[in-house]
């Protein structure tokens, strides 16, 4: 425990609210925030459909053309790819599916894992993804796993999309979420699952504030103020 990294990991399935929560937790603790799903999405978009079938040498050399860095901190943390902010173009369901496919390729995972660890050595981070607590940062000091039924996650996503004026039907969202769950949970390398020492939160009946408080209270109750002096919990 003494050599635990001052890192907070947030893992969980698609649509569980990790991105919003990771940003809020990072803001509260005064840390930078890293969205590793955005790295997979960005690479998937840059490499295009079918990248998972490329020969390893070509895949390596194409991945090497893209660098990832972080700027800012707290809610203003930004992921940069080749020095350009990664934007809303990666947030479609189609890019999500492409990302889930390249995420099954060991070479891609190895490349992104190395970059994620380099960033973790440089900054105290809140990191969100699928394998942050299990594979990338197994000695992170605080690990969380957020979960909710596929139907609940699909409904949340539907509301988000409706707010943005995008119409999608609930049945197709639920089926996309199930498909992504299956790819993420059943891949042989770094499958989605809670780390043994993760605090698992079922978010089905909680709103964002409820989950945020559960996370911050858990950190506080486990000597969090020692690691993150600016922690601010509202009970
Ligand atoms: O969190 P997200 O929906 O933005 O992630 C997109 C895809 O990227 C997800 O389906 C699986 C993959 N991913 C992963 O395999 N490992 C991570 N640490 C983050 C994302």
Report the biggest beta sheet as strand number plus sense, adding barrel if it closes: 5 strands, parallel
Enter the CATH topology name: Rossmann fold
Q: Give the domain tally.
A: 1
Number of strands: 8
**Structural class computed from helices and strand pairing:** alpha/beta
Spatial shape: globular
Q: What's the helical proportion of residues?
A: 40-55%
Distance between the amino and carboxyl termini: 27 Å
The unique ligands bound to this protein are: 2'-deoxycytidine-5'-monophosphate
CATH class: Alpha Beta
Computed Rg: 17 Å
Mean pLDDT across every amino acid position: 92
> How much strand content do the residues show?
15-25%
* Poorly predicted spans: none
Question: What is the CATH architecture assignment?
Answer: 3-Layer(aba) Sandwich
Quickly count the helices: 10
CATH superfamily: P-loop containing nucleotide triphosphate hydrolases
Main β-sheet, spatial strand arrangement: 2-6-1-7-8
Summarize the helix and strand pattern as letters.
EHEHHEEEHHEHEHHEHH
Short description:
Helix content is 48%, strand content 16%. The protein is of the alpha/beta class and 235 residues long. The longest helix is centred in the middle third of the chain and has 17 residues, at 106-122.
Report on the architecture of this protein.
There is one protein chain. By secondary structure, this protein is an alpha/beta fold. It has helices at 18-29, 36-47, 56-63, 93-102, 106-122, 132-136, 150-163, 170-186, 208-221, 224-227, and strands spanning 5-11, 32-35, 68-71, 78-81, 84-85, 125-129, 140-147, 199-202. A hairpin with a 2-residue loop joins strand 4 and strand 5 (84-85). The longest helix has 17 residues, at 106-122. Helix 1 crosses helix 9 (208-221), helix 4 runs parallel beside helix 8 and helix 7 (150-163) crosses helix 8. Strands 2-6-1-7-8 form a five-stranded parallel β-sheet, with helices on both faces. Strands 3-4-5 form a three-stranded antiparallel β-sheet, with helices on one face. The two termini are 27 Å apart. The mean pLDDT is 92. The chain has one domain (8-226): Rossmann fold (3-Layer(aba) Sandwich). 48% of the residues lie in helices and 16% in strands. The structure holds 2'-deoxycytidine-5'-monophosphate (DC). 2'-deoxycytidine-5'-monophosphate is lined by residues 14, 36-37, 40-41, 96, 99-100, 103, 129-131, 180, 184. 2'-deoxycytidine-5'-monophosphate (DC) is lined by residues 14, 36-37, 40-41, 96, 99-100, 103, 129-131, 180, 184.
């Amino acid at each position: 425990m003494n050599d635990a990294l001052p890192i907070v990991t947030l893992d969980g399935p698609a649509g569980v609210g990790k991105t919003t929560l990771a940003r809020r937790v990072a803001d509260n603790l005064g840390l930078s925030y890293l969205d590793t799903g955005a790295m997979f999405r960005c690479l998937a978009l840059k490499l295009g459909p079918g990248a998972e079938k490329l020969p390893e040498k070509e895949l390596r050399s194409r991945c090497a053309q893209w660098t990832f860095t972080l700027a800012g901190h707290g809610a203003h943390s930004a992921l940069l790819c080749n020095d350009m902010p990664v934007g809303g173009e990666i947030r479609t369901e189609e890019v999500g599916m492409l990302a889930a496919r390249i995420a099954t390729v060991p070479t891609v995972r190895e490349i992104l894992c190395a970059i994620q660890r380099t960033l973790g050595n440089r900054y105290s981070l809140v990191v969100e993804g699928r394998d942050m607590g299990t594979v990338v940062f197994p000695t992170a000091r605080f690990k969380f796993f957020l979960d909710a039924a596929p139907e609940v996650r699909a409904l949340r996503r539907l509301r988000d999309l409706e707010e943005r004026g995008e119409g999608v039907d609930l049945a197709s969202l639920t089926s996309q979420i199930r498909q992504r769950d299956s790819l993420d949970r059943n891949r042989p390398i770094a499958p989605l699952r809670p780390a043994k020492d993760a605090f698992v939160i079922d978010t089905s009946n909680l709103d964002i504030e409820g989950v945020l408080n559960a996370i911050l209270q858990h950190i506080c109750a486990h000597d969090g103020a020692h690691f993150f002096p600016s922690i601010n919990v509202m009970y």
